[in-house]
Every structure is written in structure tokens, then in C-alpha cells.
Amino acid sequence: MLKKMNLKDCIYSALFAAIIAVLGFVYIPLPFSPVPITGQTLAVMLAGSILTARQAAMSVTTFLLLGMAGVPVFAGGTSGLSVIAGPRGGYLIGFLVAAIVISLIRGLENNLLRLGISNFIGGIIIVYAVGVTWLNFVTGIGFYKAIITGALPFIPGDVFKACAATFIGFAVNKHLSRMHRS
């Protein structure tokens, strides 16, 4: 049975959709890759670290629908179906899967180790798996070259983002649990 959306779900989802969009302006194009460095992966990891799986799914879905509708929310202020259909599209679709996976692995308790593991699995492995596969499919460059241009250069930054999301998410969850007890 589907659970009815409440105001809190809508507000949290909209807030994180906006955070994902804003961190798209943290954008560094790489001359050797069709995929830029962005802050959006950090925002996706935060969504999964803080929100329920349903809220995280709603926030990333809202972000994706806005971008597909022409609102410039994708990295570097881009938008449109052509971005989804292009080399970066797999990473964007991977955001949706990642946010849900992070939230599900994290579970309901605020455990730092479990949160860290969930960010590494969802925020790095899942995003790369979907993104690199799509990059290979769209460009035809071969899976090995897709890994070289679409994953390897990003690993150090994404490890940093996963660590940051883990500690930020842990602190926010701790604060939110105190608020709910009061």
C-alpha cells in the first residue's frame, strides 16, 4: 500500500532537489572527459544520508524532472533531454539509484560506520557503475576507456565527498533525532 505524502516529505524533497541543483554550479570541466567534476554527487550522498529512501527518491526525481523540463539544474547550468541522453546521463540516472541505496543501507539508526559504507557503495560504486556503463554505451569508446575517462579521475574527489557526506549526515541526523525527542 502506498503511503500518503505529507508536508515534511515534500519540504525535505524540495530542499534536497534544490541543494543538488545548486551544487551543480560547482563545476569543473575536464579536457579529457565528457564528464565534469561537480558538487552534485556530494548533494546526492547527503540526500541519501539524511532523508528516508522515499524522500531521497522524490528529491532526485524532482531534480531530474526539472532538468529534463528545461530548468538549468544539471552541472554547469545545463538542462534538457539531450543531457540525459548524452555521456553524462548515466551519472544523473545513477544519482537516483544511489540516493535510494544510501538511504536503505544506512537504515534507521545513526551509525557512523554504516553511513560511511552506504555512501561509498551508493555514492561511488553505484554512480560509477551506471555512469560508466552509460558513457560506454552512448559514446562507444569501450568499457576500459569509459572507466579511464569517466571514473578514475573522479575517485579521489568522490572519496572526499563520501567522507564529508558521512560526517555531515551523521551530525545532521544526530541533531534531527534530538529535535524529534523534544
Structural account:
The chain has 182 residues and is mainly alpha-helical. It has a single domain, classed as Orthogonal Bundle (Arp2/3 complex 21 kDa subunit ARPC3). Helices cover 71% and strands 2% of the residues. It contains eight helices and two strands. It has helices at 7-22, 40-50, 53-68, 81-85, 89-106, 112-139, 143-150, 155-181, and strands at residues 27-28, 37-38. A two-stranded antiparallel ribbon has the order 1-2. A hairpin with an 8-residue loop joins strand 1 and strand 2. Helix 2 (40-50) packs parallel to helix 5 (89-106) and helix 5 (89-106) packs antiparallel against helix 6. The relative contact order is 0.15.
